[in-house]
Design brief:
The protein is mainly alpha-helical and about 130 residues long. The protein contains 5 helices and 4 strands, in the order ββαααββαα.
Length: about 130
């Protein structure tokens, strides 16, 4: 089955917004911290922090509000702008799939049988 991954380039410096950053924001919302979110995704904390820093620097206000650790431990929460970003990104993904679904299906139907079989094997591997 054909699939589409939406990646958006924002602003003159073309900062990237894609499913990975959205997944990180969702994990931060679920776990309440950048480090726990990174662990849940198998991502290095430093990389997660850099992605959050990039997102926070991209918009007029932060998408993640982090508090410094210490005895009580730190944490992070998604701001209202971050929640809007997650919601709008998923809405754009859905609209994209709706807009091009028929064309994707038509192309998929024309795949060589070997390509279709190889594609289906990769899909099963990803689901595990």
């Amino acid at each position: 089955m054909a699939r589409v991954r939406l990646r958006i380039y924002l602003g003159e410096d073309e900062r990237k917004l894609g499913p990975g950053k959205i997944q990180l924001l969702e994990a931060i919302r679920e776990h309440g911290s950048i480090s726990a979110a990174a662990r849940s995704m198998g991502m290095a904390y430093r990389h997660a922090w850099e992605l959050v820093d990039d997102l926070n620097g991209c918009f007029q206000s932060p998408v993640v509000a982090a508090s410094i650790g210490g005895r009580a431990g730190g944490g992070a929460e998604i701001t209202p702008l971050g929640e809007e970003l997650i919601r709008r990104f998923h809405a754009m993904e859905k609209a994209t799939r709706r807009a091009i679904g028929r064309d994707l299906d038509a192309l998929e139907a024309k795949l060589d049988a070997r390509a279709r079989k190889a594609r289906s094997g990769r899909d099963r591997t990803r689901e595990r």
